[in-house]
Give the backbone structure.
Amino acid sequence: MKILGRVALLGAIATLGMTATSALLAHGDVTPQAVDTSALPEIGDAWLEKNPYSGNAKAIEIGQSAYGQNCARCHGLDAESGGIAPDLRYLEAGESGDQWFAERFRHGSSHDGKVYMPPFGDVLGQKAGWAIRAWLETKREG
């Protein structure tokens, strides 16, 4: 009977361990994924205040892929948040919205020592950021 109890206990521990592991890995690889922006026009190194790719079909295509790889795990598929992070369909349109997006994309967001969004500007670059913004513009809701 003692052996049966130990086997059951070990089985329960193994099950708990697998459940906890899958929960920890639920977000997948959180390392930023590279974005191929070679098909986009060059825009220089200095960050622009206005999205140069707004309405650009190729940028929108690249932005959709880049969003899926780097943003969807927190902001939701199709930019529709499940509550973890802001719903990006409601970003302000136009140049003031571009400026806010660029600031947040470049520098991230942290409060009281907690990182709520990591900075992506130096990691993914300006072209990828503006491509993501171009795609987000197609998802905008009022």
